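ok trying this again, last paste got cut off
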Amino acid sequence: MSDGVRPDLSRTSSVAAGDSLPANCELIEVRVSELKQLFNAIDPSPFRERDLDPDAEEFITGWAKEAPAGVTFGLAVYLDRPAGLANEPAELREAIHEFFRNRAELSRRRLRELFRRGRTSLAIGVCTLGVSVAVGNLVGSVFSNHLAQILKESLLIGGWVAMWRPMEIFLYDWWPIRAEATLADRLSVMPVRISYTQDGSTDAWQRDWPATSPAARTV
């Protein structure tokens, strides 16, 4: 996607299967030689629970972030091989949906942990600020020279510095994580459609996902 122009990936595909793509959706288009290229090759999890390949995840989420707010997403996968198992589109859809559901839950756990840390930081900051003000007032009431005034102001500044981290958490840090969770929720329900090319070996699917998964081999 250079210069903001997205290439037309559909010109060489002639057979499609999977979900219907709404006409007004933001269509995310990916071309791969094999479906297994979409998944992390070193992840030992079963295929449906396997993470997406980092490049594939970055491409999909990057495209989605550039889309207008509130649009419905759709994923078109242009596959450089003929169709294989009839359940390929459904398996791919479920694997992608499961991945983004997990990503949404992970973001929400991060958000809960951030707020927990923020509450702890806030308690520490408020106590520190209170002690700083009290000690500063005590110093100001006992001593009336210029040095005492400097010490009082320094304690007050130190107390407000202690409030910096909780203020940063509650004002700025939480909303990007919440945005990640919301985006993952939207991607976890998007329709997925595979477009196949008629060129290539008709048995190429046997070496590709999901045919290469343990579940498929035991059928």
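PB: full thing came through this time. The chain has five helices and four strands.
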